[in-house]
Specification:
The protein is α/β, with parallel strands linked by helices. It has one domain: 3-Layer(aba) Sandwich (Rossmann fold), CATH 3.40.50. It contains 14 helices and five strands. Strands 2-3-1-4-5 form a five-stranded parallel β-sheet, with helices on both faces. α5 crosses α10 and α10 packs parallel to α14. The longest helix is centred in the middle third of the chain and has 20 residues. It is globular and about 55 Å long. The model has no long low-confidence stretch (mean pLDDT about 90).
């Protein structure tokens, strides 16, 4: 049985959230925001987020497909949209689970994305990692309430909570999901293979750059696995500059009508939310991240060479 699924593939902080919210406003689409408690159910203690086709056993395929089938039946839409940034690291696995899916690849300038990833680490780390700071419980409760609100059904809210706290054997040691995923430390975002050897040896900026690099490489190395007729590639900068055209092209790709007045129904899209790196990243920052992401930036068409960071005078 085919399941009408659209998979958004994009690095964290590359615009996948706003794109998912836009698509969710279409009456024939429903966006399931980061259902990691479905994708990772059988990989709760995996050392990283990278999965291959052979990891998709029949049992695991059935588990994930049934969950998406049930979601589809609950909302009675033409397309269920999945927005899970970790899937950048496991495209062969995702394709094996959903060979019939349509894929939207959302690309953003790595420098802006890394800048945003670093900010997210700082914000969430300040709230969840710093237990001594006064008033943080209010911020934690606010984030948790927002996190639960993303689950459109009560059963999904319970399912995600139970997945986070895990089985009773972890409770006495307070080994909840984030601590398990990050080996006792606070962490956020996708875990690439070998992250353990990088996280404590680099600055936060460098680690953010490695997260983007591995996400970008996951796309570059595996996009050809998806048949051309099943994939749609869009750059974030083009999307925010001309959302009307981008959205129309997306709906055409999915064989959906463009509803009258649709652009008035969507969340606000900030046309100037690009190239912030030019005034928020220092020359020293560029010299640090350049060697990590330089080749990927060329492959994605954002730069022709490495002069943007090489030869800079500090």
């Amino acid at each position: 049985m085919n399941i009408p699924v659209v998979i958004i593939i994009g690095a964290p902080r590359s615009g996948t959230s706003i794109l998912g919210r836009v698509l969710d406003r279409h009456p024939r689409m429903s966006t399931w925001v980061e259902p990691y408690y479905i994708w990772d159910y059988h990989f709760r203690e995996a050392p990283h987020d990278m999965l291959m086709a052979e990891d998709a056993s029949n049992k695991i395929r059935y588990w994930i497909r049934k969950a998406f089938h049930d979601y589809h039946q609950a909302f009675k839409v033409d397309w269920v949209v999945d927005k899970s940034p970790r899937n950048c690291l496991r495209i062969p696995f995702v394709k094996t689970v959903f060979p019939e899916a349509r894929y939207i690849f959302l690309i953003r300038d790595g420098r802006d994305t890394i800048n945003s990833i670093k900010k997210q680490w700082e914000v969430k780390g300040g709230i969840f990692a710093d237990s001594e700071k006064p008033g943080q419980w209010k911020n934690r409760i606010r984030i948790i309430r927002r996190w639960l609100k993303r689950r459109p059904l009560w059963r999904l809210r319970f399912q995600s909570v139970f997945f986070e706290i895990g089985p009773p054997k972890y409770w006495l040691n307070k080994k909840f999901l984030n601590q398990i995923r990050w080996e006792g430390r606070f962490g956020w975002g996708p875990r690439f293979k070998g992250w353990q050897y990088v996280v404590d040896r680099t600055t936060l900026l460098e680690f953010s750059a490695y997260q983007w690099f591995h996400s970008a490489q996951g796309i570059l190395e595996n996009i050809s696995l998806i048949p051309k007729e099943n994939r749609f590639i869009i750059k974030y900068e083009n999307f925010i500059e001309d959302p009307n055209t981008s959205i129309k092209n997306l709906f055409s790709f999915l064989h959906l009508e463009f509803p009258s007045g649709f652009m008035e129904m969507i969340p606000r899209i900030w046309a100037d939310n690009s190239n912030k790196w030019q005034h928020e990243l220092s020359l020293r920052d560029l010299k640090i991240i350049g060697p990590i992401i330089g080749q990927s930036m060329i492959e994605l068409g954002y730069e022709k060479n490495t002069s943007w960071y090489q030869g800079l005078e500090l």
